[in-house]
From TrEMBL:
Name of the protein in question: Pyridine nucleotide-disulfide oxidoreductase
SUPFAM superfamilies in the cross-refs: Dimeric alpha+beta barrel
Entry superkingdom: Bacteria
């Protein structure tokens, strides 16, 4: 990273990996969503998009090592 590059970081939480896979499958099967993404790529320019990214998009999965009930994310009663 330097003054000419940026990093976008996003974090999502799912109850299980299976839930993630189910949602991801539904998104990729949503024709309207796919068309919007393709249209956006066309607006940006696919080559420009590749140039801006410069690197492959990383998708990493993490697992909590702390019981959820022992965190600030525990369900409120």
């Amino acid at each position: 990273m330097d003054e000419n590059t940026s990093e976008i970081f996003a974090l999502w939480e799912y109850d299980s990996f299976e839930q993630y896979e189910e949602i991801e499958t539904k998104i990729k099967a949503d024709e309207e969503h796919v068309q919007r993404v393709q249209k956006r790529f066309d607006q940006i320019g696919r080559e420009r998009f590749k140039e801006v990214l410069k690197q492959e998009i990383k998708q990493e999965f993490i697992t909590s090592t702390v019981d959820r009930d022992k965190t600030i994310l525990k369900p409120r009663v």
